Structures are given as C-alpha cells and as structure tokens.
Amino acid sequence: MTKEEIFKTVQSIAADELDTDADKISMNTSIQNDLNADSLDVFEIMNELEDKFDIELDDDNAKAETISDVVDLVAKQLAAKDN
Description:
Blueprint: H1 3-18, H2 39-53, H3 67-82
Helix pairs in contact: 1-2, 1-3
Main location: cytoplasm
InterPro entries: ACP, ACP-like_sf, PP-bd_ACP
Pathway: Lipid metabolism; fatty acid biosynthesis
C-alpha cells in the first residue's frame, strides 16, 4: 500500500472523526493546531486506523503531530506486518 493510499484513509477517518471537510486535511495539517483535536480525538482516530489496517499502533501515536506523522506510523506498522 502506498503512502498516498494510506493518506487517503487517514484523511477520511480524521475528517469523519473531527467532523471536518476532508479537503482541508493535507499531509502538513497539524492534528491539534489545525484540526483542534484533543487527546481523545487522536485516540479515536488511532483506534479506527488500527481496525481498518489490522495493525497495532504503540505509544508513538502520542508523538504524531501532523497527518504525515500518522501516515508514517501506519506505513511503518504495515511494513512490519508484511515481514
């Protein structure tokens, strides 16, 4: 799965969870500053991503500041799962 495909899924889930327009979410979007997400919102997004991709995201999710960070975390877990 490409990072672009992962991004589209992250974008969709974040938009649904935060009740915002997906077009306003880019790779450089700050989760807290631009989307006004709190820690519970981030937790919910991460849980949905775990379910969607059948992966486990560890405590690094707390360090995810941008959508790009989240995409990288998911890509890393998918790569580890394939090995």
